[in-house]
Design a protein that fits this description.
Largest sheet: 6 strands, mixed
Radius of gyration: 22 Å
Order of helices and strands: EEHEEHEEHHHHH
Structural class: alpha+beta
Strand content: 15-25%
Shape: elongated
Distance between the termini: 31 Å
Helix content: 40-55%
Strand order of the largest sheet: 1-2-6-5-4-3
Number of helices: 7
Number of strands: 6
């Protein structure tokens, strides 16, 4: 099992054999300073670069650097740190100069290649983009005001069930189009529901 967290460092993964990639932010004080200083000093490091294709009138270049570091375990009492990583991203909107580079720092429980770090940190957003955003936009989940007893949990289960039913239907239309068509056409609604056998 793997986990990535940007929350406070006390967060634990559910499996004892889990590896982690934890984002370290400036509010972590001395730990953040120690990680940034390591990248300021010379030392053996691995580097990979990725340039995302232009989408939505923007282009982003991301560069990952990984350095081995086991001293953080003893100095800060942080469990199982094997390496530290840094991702420098630079975004450019079409027709405008590039934004200033943004650097993010990570603690790694296991040494990984910079290319893998780029993939891993990017995949973290998959949950937000593929599930939570869809539920909010298509099912207005954030506007739901059910607060009493089991209503929030029950409605969340029903929304996810509806999303799964819509995604498994072979029609190539968008989710929004499928929702509208199911509301207008009873035959299509029955076809969607009967497809789940």
């Amino acid at each position: 099992m793997r986990c990535i967290a940007t929350a406070p460092l006390q967060r634990r993964c559910s499996s004892a054999a889990a590896d982690y990639v934890l984002a370290i932010k400036a509010n972590r004080g001395r730990l953040f300073t120690a990680v940034t200083q390591q990248f300021a000093r010379s030392g053996k490091r691995s580097i990979a670069q990725q340039i995302d294709p232009s989408t939505h009138d923007r282009r982003e270049a991301r560069r990952a650097t990984v350095m081995r570091n086991t001293s953080l375990v003893a100095r800060y009492g942080f469990p199982d740190v094997a390496a530290v990583g840094r991702i420098t991203s630079r975004r450019r909107l079409r027709g405008q100069p590039a934004d200033a580079p943004v650097q993010r720092y990570y603690l790694l429980s296991k040494y990984m290649s910079p290319k893998r770090l780029l993939q891993f940190t990017r995949s973290h957003w998959g949950i937000e983009n593929q599930l939570h955003w869809v539920l909010d936009v298509h099912f207005a989940e954030d506007n739901n005001r059910a607060r009493k007893d089991n209503a929030p949990e029950n409605l969340a289960i029903l929304r996810r069930l509806a999303l799964n039913i819509l995604r498994t239907h072979p029609d190539r239309a968008s989710l929004r189009a499928k929702i509208k068509r199911a509301g207008w056409d009873d035959a299509f609604l029955l076809a969607i529901l009967s497809h789940m056998r």
